[in-house]
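User: quick one, sequence for these tokens?
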């Protein structure tokens, strides 16, 4: 893909002299869902595919953005960066540039071509990937000297404040900090993190996309966030906690009477038990107990289905079909839910059988086919040296 991006850059912008190439992966969350904005634990990893950005600085203030994935070219002045819904995907790079400027970094115009193979709207963080590839490119080319974790936070800010998506830190963190063969164990309120080896010998990560459009997803996502906030405010009457991620299961049991609404109690129960599952899952990996890891994935899915109520029949069907197969270690929805993808850990020699069987089962029950992506654990955002 790298070669194609450079050739296309040349076609679009006249020459490829002085061009540099950057890459940023997508991410998948292995366990720890709807915990990031609650300050809890997540355990994502970077995919081994993502977004490329070929870029060359200009002497004037023009920013020219094009993409091979979208039939839309955007040209803006570096000093006039505002959100424009007609600019679609280009708002992600624009948002990163704006946030950098607001932080006092001096930027210049450039021309760039983006090309990626992360399906968008699937919950694999194509947006964080575009943000990080842009941020890393500017940081490297203009020698801004921004530490990677800081850059991750600025990219989250771009998504929150410029694009207007109130996401937690997980996506940008996984995409920016990813490391091949490691998953990232991250505590979202303190940003303490550890790399945990995730080189599942003989297994592959298979991501199955329900291909269900997530039309209502944004509003329901925000509804879950508000429910967690509401529940927290009740708990705070007796408990000194800043977020649900700080609540232990014992405290939850002792103080849940403070929450006057059964639905809210279920939401909190998911967050609290999910946090414990992440801890257990990391422990299981350290002990090489991948069976246990798989079992925790399934428990996570069940909790998201029954307590957090963010799965739906498409995601439940994919997981159900996957778990019928005895070479599948674990399977669960990943991302916000409602549609989007599941993640399954599958014995390598059965990956093809998995794809065929789950596709068939899903199609019979849902009426159309899912999409499948097989991935290993790849690196985070970086420059690709052009030979
Ligand atoms: P997806 O659906 O993968 O975009 C969303 C949030 C994450 C996290 C998960 C739920 C965005 C951009 N990302 O992920 O921060 O909260 O849901 O665990 O909204
Ligand atoms: Mg996104």
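Assistant:
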């Amino acid at each position: 893909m790298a070669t194609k991006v450079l050739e296309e850059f040349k076609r679009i912008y006249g020459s490829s002299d002085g061009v540099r190439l950057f890459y940023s992966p997508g991410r998948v969350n292995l366990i720890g869902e709807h915990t990031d904005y609650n300050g809890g634990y997540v355990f994502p990893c970077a995919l081994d595919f993502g977004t490329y950005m070929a870029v060359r600085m200009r002497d004037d203030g023009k920013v020219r953005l094009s993409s091979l994935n979208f039939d839309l070219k955007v040209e803006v002045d570096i000093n006039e960066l505002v959100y424009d819904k007609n600019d679609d995907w280009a708002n992600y790079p624009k948002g990163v540039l704006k946030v950098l400027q607001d932080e006092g970094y001096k930027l210049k115009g450039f021309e760039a071509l983006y090309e990626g193979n992360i399906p968008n709207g699937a919950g694999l963080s194509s947006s964080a990937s575009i943000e990080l590839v842009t941020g890393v490119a500017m940081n490297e080319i203009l020698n801004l000297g921004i530490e990677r974790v800081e850059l991750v936070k600025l990219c989250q800010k771009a998504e929150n404040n410029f694009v207007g998506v109130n996401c937690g830190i997980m996506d940008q963190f996984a995409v920016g900090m990813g490391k091949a063969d490691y998953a990232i164990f991250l505590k979202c309120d303190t940003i303490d993190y550890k790399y945990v080896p995730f080189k599942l010998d003989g297994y592959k990560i298979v991501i199955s996309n329900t291909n269900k459009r997530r039309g209502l997803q944004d509003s329901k996502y925000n509804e879950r966030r508000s429910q967690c906030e509401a529940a927290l405010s009740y708990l705070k009457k007796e408990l000194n906690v800043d977020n649900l991620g700080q609540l232990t299961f014992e405290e939850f049991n002792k103080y849940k009477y403070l929450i006057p609404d059964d639905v809210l109690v279920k939401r909190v129960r998911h967050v609290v038990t999910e946090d414990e599952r992440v801890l257990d899952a990391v422990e299981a990996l350290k002990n090489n107990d991948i069976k246990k890891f798989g079992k925790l994935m399934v428990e996570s899915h069940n909790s998201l289905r029954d307590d957090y109520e963010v799965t739906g029949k498409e995601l439940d069907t994919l997981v159900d079909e996957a778990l019928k197969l005895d070479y599948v270690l674990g399977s669960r929805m990943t991302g916000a839910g409602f549609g989007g993808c599941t993640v399954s850990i599958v014995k390598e020699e059965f990956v093809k059988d998995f794809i065929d069987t789950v596709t068939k089962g899903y199609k019979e029950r849902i009426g159309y086919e899912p999409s499948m992506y097989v991935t290993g654990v790849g690196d985070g955002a970086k420059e690709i040296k052009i030979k």
